[in-house]
Design a protein that fits this description.
This protein is an alpha+beta fold. The protein folds into two domains: 79 residues, 3-Layer(aba) Sandwich (Glutaredoxin); 138 residues, Glutathione S-transferase Yfyf (Class Pi), Chain A, domain 2, CATH 1.20.1050.10. 57% of the residues lie in helices and 6% in strands. It is built from nine helices and four strands; from the N terminus they run E-H-E-H-E-E-H-H-H-H-H-H-H. It has a four-stranded mixed sheet. Helix 1 links the parallel strand 1 and strand 2. The radius of gyration is 18 Å and the shape is globular. The relative contact order is 0.14. The mean pLDDT is 87.
């Protein structure tokens, strides 16, 4: 039996979702960092998926896409405890909302202004695995693309500042807890870990400070961090 492995990019929000679950369950999983410019080569064993994260269990089973990976890990290594409410309208609707709305909110907050985009691409170039030339090319040529072509359009379409967008998402999410500490109740469930992964993916960047004055959001986030100890 081989070692379970997770192929990642260090700044990928989808990878952060799975990493948090693995940390919470204290699983022995090798983390393999993929070259950001050569994902097709590094993930050739996926038969054309070419995206991270990719999870390979000890028997060689390959699972792709973050939410299916989280469900697989919870079922295989945790008896499905964190996803036991799957199938209920409340659980399924919130998980789908998290995977759509929170996913789309990460780019505006990281690349929503020219200065933020430059800061983010330089930080990404330091954290990810690049070649010597591609690292410098991404650091200085990537930010106009991320800001001008992608982030600015999303901010304009939504109509809210990235901070307001995230504060609204956190307010809607935490107000659904019904007086509990987590969406899952007194303990987090898979929906909590999905949301936590998206928010945690912003933590290596200075833009995380825009979220720190959301009281209920940070109380939940800090409580989720304690689940990793």
């Amino acid at each position: 039996m081989s070692q379970a492995a997770l192929h990642v990019l260090q700044t990928c929000p989808f990878c952060w979702k799975v990493r948090g679950l693995i940390e919470h369950l204290n699983l022995d999983v090798d983390e393999i960092q993929v070259n950001a410019m050569r994902t097709k080569r590094d993930l050739a064993f996926t038969d054309g998926w070419n995206k991270v994260p990719v999870f390979t269990d000890g028997e060689g089973e390959v699972v792709v896409d973050s939410t299916p990976i989280m469900n697989y890990i919870d079922e295989k290594y945790n008896n499905g405890t964190l996803s036991q409410d799957s199938g209920s309208e409340r659980y399924d609707a919130m998980l789908a909302h998290i995977d759509e709305a929170w996913k789309r909110a990460t780019i505006p907050i990281l690349y929503g202004s020219l200065g933020a985009a430059l800061s983010t691409t330089r930080r990404v170039s330091q954290m990810e695995k690049f070649g010597f030339i591609s690292r410098r090319l991404y650091a200085w040529a990537g930010f106009p693309v991320m800001w001008g072509i992608i982030a600015r359009k999303r901010v304009k379409k939504d109509g809210r500042t990235p901070k307001k967008l995230w504060h609204d998402l956190l307010t809607d999410f935490t107000s659904s807890f019904d007086g509990h500490a987590f969406f899952g109740g007194d303990q987090p469930n898979l929906v909590d870990f999905a949301a936590f992964g998206y928010m945690r993916s912003i933590s290596p960047f200075k833009q995380f400070k825009l979220l720190e004055d959301h009281k209920s959001g940070m109380e939940w986030y800090n409580a989720m961090e304690l689940q990793l100890k």
